[in-house]
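Lecture 7 notes: from sequence to structure.
We start with the chain below.
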Amino acid sequence: MELATYFEAAFLGLVEGLTEFLPVSSTGHVLLVGHFLGFESAGKSFEVLIQLGAILAILSVYFARLWNIAIALPSSAQARRFVFAVLLAFLPAAVIGASAHGFIKSVLFESPQLICTTLIVGGILLAWVDKMELKPRYTDVMDYPLGLAFKIGLFQCLAMVPGVSRSGSTIAGALLMGTDKRSAAEFSFFLAMPTMTGAFAYDLYKNRDIINVDDATIIVIGFVVAFISGVFVVRRLLDFVSQHGFMPFAIWRIIVGTLGFIGLAIWG
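Predicted structure tokens for the same chain:
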């Protein structure tokens, strides 16, 4: 395998880690950048499997909090309700993702025009939600009602379309249903753990027969870089959102989608 491919894998891992937890669609960015680089992976597995790095980034940053929740489960009804709320929110994506896996990978992942469109439309919608005068009723993820968690999980399913953004759809849905910006972003972090772990495991199972040693090597490179850059984002995102909201990300989405259309018009 050419050295350039390893550099491409590292660059795409950087893109994944920097964008996974932002409401800008990491998958859309990785697929779009990969398209212009001419990067190809077996069964489009690279784009999914490097998300393991982002998962470990959350675990490393939130380890102490996750540990405290785990040891509180036997005695704390609040901890048990929170864990159940996250799993309940994960359920819709698990069902739809498994049933539509083939269509998502073979059709939606192969359309850069669709990605550019969803980036722009999603940016406009995110800007609209960010500017709305919403009065938050829920400010602590530990106290999110089960019904609210499930509805947020339904919003997450919109991200099956690349370019929509898993974090963007969950955060926007949470805001519309009465959460504040900081807790909406934090719940998106927690929901990412089972969602991305499930996507990783299912995609690895489905493509176990077509991934070779070279594929595994570039996946590992992308995973390591995604982990390092993901830690940086997770540590700083909540404070940034609290101070600036989501408008910068909305603008970024619109710019990237527009540049993507220009690039497609010039280079195809």
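Points to note: The chain has one domain: 3-267. DSSP finds 13 helices and no strands in the chain.
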